Structure of Arogenate dehydrogenase:
Amino acid sequence: MSMPASSSSGTLKIGIIGFGSFAQFLAKTILKQGHTLQATSRTDYSELCCQMGISFFRDTNTFLEADNDVILISTSILSLSKVIKSLPLNLLKRPTLFVDVLSVKEHPREILLQALPEDLDLLCTHPMFGPESGKDGWKDLTFAYEKVRIRDEATCTCFLQIFESEGCRMEEMSCEEHDKLAAKSQFLTHTIGRMLAEMEIKSTPIDTKGFKTLVQLKESTMGTSSDLFSGLFVHNRFAKQELEHLEHALHKVKETLLQKKNQERVATENEQ
């Protein structure tokens, strides 16, 4: 396959589908590196895009005809299937690299493999950071990815370089392995944060460092959308098992404490 002129020069023309807060966060660094961005979204971001130097398309057809090297999918997990099915992919002028940045990986891989024609490349990725954790730069932050179907290595390498050049820790792994690990880390973190929010924990005058960490966890977790949290559970087949493990662990801890309390009570009665 011939190399697109833009990728051969080290820059890409990237079209973003879904220009919410995470896409906006990524766009700032991508633009800083000299790449050209275009975007389309259900919400009208034309004014913001104009300020950022990004072409915004309300019409998906026109967006797909704009001859991008890369189509970056940054929709919510829950809306991905509907969005992809609505795309008139026949309007693409040439083979294009499709990249998703969703927080689960098996689900978008399956949806995109079913929907995309064979001549379109697919890279499934998860930048495991966001506007808060990445506000001071991306150095040493994790970027997980799987080269699902890549023929145009030059464009794929050029896209990955966006994150590698910022100092990200690049982790190539299967979508299945990612979801297994993310269920134990990301989903579990969000679940505990939501539990702390339900308990309405807040800072006190006698906070320990450990409790301050819990308050920070609650606040950072509640800064993410409920759709993201739902998506981490609904579309990660390993999440239900981790939720059951959490419930079992709480039961075991509670059981141990009650046993200790009962033992203390018996010991006190025997002393009397």
About this structure: The longest helix spans residues 239-271. The domain at 178-271 is CATH 1.10.3660 (6-phosphogluconate dehydrogenase C-terminal fold). The radius of gyration is 23 Å. Residues 18 and 41 are 5 Å apart (CA to CA).
